[in-house]
């Protein structure tokens, strides 16, 4: 049953095409609208989330700037302390003064550190060999001489090159203790001789507990979907929340702007990157968020829109079935009726009365079938009449043969009694009638046309005696082509009656069958009376197909019309004439193997 139903469906029917077109257009519209809506929503959410993330990064940057400014202010107290400068330079008068200076500096550094309780080590590195280390993280604060010999280290040279400005190294292993030590937040600045000419006497290196910086970086984790890091101007990571990414390079191409937001693939995963430059140094605070986590809401919206699209598509398909059926049913009725009419049932009628275009088609189909039935009845009667006409034509052919035989008998009687003029005219007339009638055919060979014209001239010669001289020229290659038989003789007749007959004295008539390419040129030239200019203009006007003001030149107009109907509008008759000197008529028709009579029909 299911297969039979499928077989009954005609997939190439108009109803199915309307259904398919409606469903396809609806699906395309829903898909495009859904995609554009989802894309716009995702873009708006990404922009909104990116803006919020950038605000968070800006707030963290301000807090880091405040924290670094605090470190810088506290370091100024150390580098500006004259007692510490004195100790680094080792300018003591005796041991007692050195002990008193050491105790004073220990108390000063202890008070400085206890104000924030975040310092791990302070290194006072003298270039004159008197270096010290202060460490509040041991059992009790110690401030003791420290053997130091790292004047060639790159970080020491970098601090010295800054000439008093703070140099931040970020969260790195201790520069003093080497790569195996615990990470600390490190920065340093040079110590100058304030009592002298400001020459550099050493370097102060600070190692601070990184917990406060890491706490700032860990405060906002974007619902667990991202991280915050600090990078230097080369992209190296110098700070993160747990120290796992230190010493790595972020590998993200940042723009020159102070802050920004963009998407970038990191380790094959698409990330939303927001960044902001710190005010205190050349560092950059970077927040990275996974797009897959950020777009969870967009995914929910996508599935919601997909569900709506499926529901509306189903509704649309149902509506398209209804719409297609309104087109398919009346077309099916009409197809059924046309099939009946094709099989010969012209009594079929479509009885569905509608007010739409189908109603118009049904009405005119019924009228057309009724009219066809009438025409068939008329054709049947015409066939009967045609058969009767054929019988009459057969009788007329018998009468024509009787006429030929009678003329032939008169011809021989005239020969017996030696009446040559009568004999010639009767012979020419008999031959002319045989060629002219040609058993009812409308077309003949060009060779027969030549004989037809020859017979006609034979009769006219008897009438006009020596009134004109005839010259006939016919190309032998033309003889086997068929042409209409009634279009040649009237042109020759016009040349005799309207040209040579009106001339005083003997005239000349030239008839030529000329081949030009694939065309026949039938040229009739006489040196008779010619045509007056106004009459010539009227003839040319008629031959161009214009309607004459009065009925005239019927023969030429009729011949020209037959040529154009049989062979085409580009063929026909042309006239050239000089009044009192003669006329030249040229007829051009194509040489074709197809019967021109078939073309006329």
UniProtKB/TrEMBL annotation:
The chain crosses the membrane at residues 20-38, 303-324. Residues 325-377 form the HAMP domain. Its main location: membrane. Pfam families: dCache_1, HAMP, HATPase_c, His_kinase. It is a multi-pass membrane protein. The keyword Transmembrane applies. GO terms for molecular function: kinase activity. InterPro entries: Bact_2-comp_sensor_kinase, dCache_1, HAMP_dom, HATPase_C_sf, HATPase_dom, Sig_transdc_His_kin_internal. It comes from the Bacteria. SUPFAM superfamilies: ATPase domain of HSP90 chaperone/DNA topoisomerase II/histidine kinase, HAMP domain-like. Keywords: Cell membrane, Kinase, Membrane, Phosphoprotein, Transferase, Transmembrane, Transmembrane helix. It is found in: Cell membrane. This is Sensor histidine kinase. It comes from Paenibacillus spongiae.
